[in-house]
Amino acid sequence: MPVITNIEDLKRIYERRVPRMFYDYCESGSWTEQTFRDNSSDFDDIRLRQRVAVDMSGRSTASQMIGQDVAMPVALAPVGLTGMQHADGEMKAARAAELFGVPFTLSTMSINSIEDVAGHTSAPFWFQLYTMKDLDYTRRLIERAKAAGCSALVITLDLQILGQRHKDLKNGLSAPPKLTPKTIANLMTKWSWGIEMLSAKRREFGNIVGHVDGISDASSLGAWTAEQFDPSLDWKKIEKLMDQWGGKVILKGILDAEDARMAAKLGADAIVVSNHGGRQLDGALSSIRMLPEIMDAVGDQVEVHLDSGIRSGQDVLKALALGAKGTYIGRAFVYGLGAMGQKGVTAALEVIHKELDTTMALCGETKVADLGRHNVLVPEGFGGRWQN
Predict the structure, then answer these.
(1) Is 120 a catalytic residue?
(2) Burial of 360 per CB tally in 10 Å (0-12, 13-18, 19+)
(3) Which of 86, 120, 166, 276 is catalytic?
(4) How many CB atoms lie within 10 A of CB 194?
(5) Contacts of the segment 377-383: beta carbons below 8 A, 24+ positions apart
(6) Which of 120, 261, 375, 380 is least enclosed by beta carbons within 10 angstroms?
(7) Is the pLDDT of residue 167 over 60?
(8) Model pLDDT, residue 190
(9) For the chain, which domains are there?
């Protein structure tokens, strides 16, 4: 097994091992990919304050997210098509998260179904909901998540209309892959991935196939999903979904202070400052750049989490220092999964945990709850001086 010291090590193995269309699906943003790049690079503008002569023994990264005990305030974000990155990908990622002691979030657009993941884990996981025009399907999806014992519903708000991702269109992204000459040529170089996929439990969207009338193959599925995202989603509909669920709700995709206030007003248990990993509105500000303004607006009214751009434990610490109570990793755990399956997800979590723990110590802190603005140096005008 290669020595893994950072997330980039996993990414290099991942790129060699996984078919190009699924690598590009993960490692891309919409349009020019400006926001996708900024999500990560903007963390570099924040510096850390080194402290010395502080007792660093007895450190702990343990915390809580929406009242749930976590080994560190890092959850696995919902990522579509995870089961095409590695055979049985969602089940393996969920199992790694459970054993590590962090939350796993299953995407509506997963390959393994809600029931598959529930049958492979013992700890409750979170379920991410895309709102669809088919209200009966949405209702049944929520009921399935309840029956599986999911402990939180994560409602994604920023995908009413699908952002254009050039690489996905050019690659003809589908699950399973369409066998074009280009695809076949690439798959021939990814034989280990292919062998494992032959024994996979599923190779299509498990939360949809068999649960929607008329969906029998990849082509009918593609047409259905392309038409199903609900462009009419508004705060009233969100409130109805929250009532339908009746449990803990996290609203994901908040990137504006006014939207944060609305989410807090609805009584969400948490909001996720997120721009969908730069995959929706290209040209939007990065999540970390928007976090201080959103914290100023609602920091004492609702638990604030952050998603998009995190590639290290230092990124996690910076988000926590700016006020977030939790963070999410998407690409970082997918790199590990695609590289080495469940062991790779564990490796990604171990890397981030070690970086968080070591950096926290060198900043003179022993508990994540004590992290704050005093631990970081934020450049003047970090949020930007913009005119509306």
Answers:
(1) no
(2) buried
(3) 276
(4) 13
(5) 377/46, 377/47, 377/48, 377/49, 378/45, 378/46, 378/292, 378/322, 379/45, 379/46, 382/45, 382/46, 382/289, 382/292, 383/289, 383/290, 383/292, 383/293
(6) 380
(7) yes
(8) 93
(9) 7-372 (3.20.20.70)
